[in-house]
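wait is this the right file?? whatever heres the structure
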């Protein structure tokens, strides 16, 4: 990563074609660099315009159709994205006040509602057009992000191979002979191939972590209830978590900071104060013995007999720690 803007500008001049004095964007007519968020932010700082980035992204998307034509269930028309670029300039004309995802392109798994765009959940028979967007999507838009489209997925978000979609089967971006992983298959491909910077998706039993593994990405599944799942078609309502696919852990944290927070419209939202936009702190306070009073249950001893000796020892240590903290053991 460049140490300062001048270093980045030098690299930018090596990577971008100069414009031919016909009213272009600050001397650059072509962009072909990485889409990780910090890199893209620096590109904007040295004069690259979002319009140039969007044009390059759509060129990539068109070219990649020759490899995998089924990445997108809905792809925004480029003129709509260019209109959104104009809107973020109007909304945040001052560079110093622009939000963290300003100009950052993203995709959504097609189980996430976007107003006016059909939600298919990978199943045409269940397609509906939502009248409002999911909060998770709207938070990204409100942070200046640019929506590129809705991605292919395993039907009804149930499956881990990514091979069960009527919209086409995808493969790993590393190999045509290996599965892409599911159910957030198209989301993983869109990030891994540099078509977007991040993707909003969902994870119930590995639906984001598995395709992250198979496509060289970071898949982050936050604690359920800390990111709103309202407007996300459920695979299993009690277990689903809105999650993120990114190129690195720094980007995952950046998206999470935008999207986290209590939502009273989410039935499983964490209503405790520490989950309502919790402050970041490195300090922790130890729990004093008997400062808490609670009951906790464990399986019967007969059930634990099938476990290894090492496991039973660790289990006993955990039970003892809970009792020391004021817990009352019940079967």
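ok assuming it is, sequence goes like this
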């Amino acid at each position: 990563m460049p140490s300062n803007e001048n270093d980045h500008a030098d690299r930018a001049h090596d990577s971008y074609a100069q414009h031919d004095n016909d009213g272009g964007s600050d001397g650059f007519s072509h962009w072909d660099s990485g889409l990780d968020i910090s890199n893209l932010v620096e590109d904007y700082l040295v004069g690259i315009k979002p319009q140039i980035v969007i044009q390059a992204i759509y060129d990539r998307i068109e070219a990649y159709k020759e490899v995998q034509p089924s990445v997108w269930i809905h792809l925004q028309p480029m003129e709509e994205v260019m209109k959104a670029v104009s809107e973020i300039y109007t909304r945040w004309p001052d560079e110093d006040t622009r939000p963290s995802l300003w100009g950052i392109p993203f995709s959504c798994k097609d189980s996430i509602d976007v107003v006016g765009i059909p939600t298919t959940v990978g199943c045409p028979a269940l397609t509906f057009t939502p009248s409002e967007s999911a909060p998770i999507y709207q938070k990204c838009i409100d942070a200046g992000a640019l929506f590129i489209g809705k991605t292919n997925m395993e039907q009804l978000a149930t499956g881990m191979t990514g091979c069960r979609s009527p919209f086409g089967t995808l493969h790993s971006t590393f190999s045509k002979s290996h599965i892409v992983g599911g159910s957030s298959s198209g989301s993983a491909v869109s990030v891994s191939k540099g078509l977007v910077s991040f993707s909003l998706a969902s994870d119930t039993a590995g639906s984001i972590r598995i395709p992250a593994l198979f496509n060289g990405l970071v898949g982050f599944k936050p604690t359920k209830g800390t990111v709103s799942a309202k407007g996300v078609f459920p695979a299993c309502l009690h277990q689903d978590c809105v999650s993120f696919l990114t190129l690195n852990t720094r980007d995952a944290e950046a998206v999470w900071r935008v999207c986290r927070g209590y939502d009273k419209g989410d039935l499983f939202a964490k209503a405790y104060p520490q989950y309502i936009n919790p402050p970041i702190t490195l300090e922790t306070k130890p729990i004093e013995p008997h400062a808490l009073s609670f009951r906790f249950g464990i399986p019967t001893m007969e059930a634990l007999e099938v476990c290894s000796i090492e496991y039973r020892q660790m289990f006993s240590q955990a039970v003892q720690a809970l009792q020391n903290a004021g817990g009352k053991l019940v079967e």
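The CA atoms of residues 312 and 318 lie 10 Å apart. so i think its the right one actually
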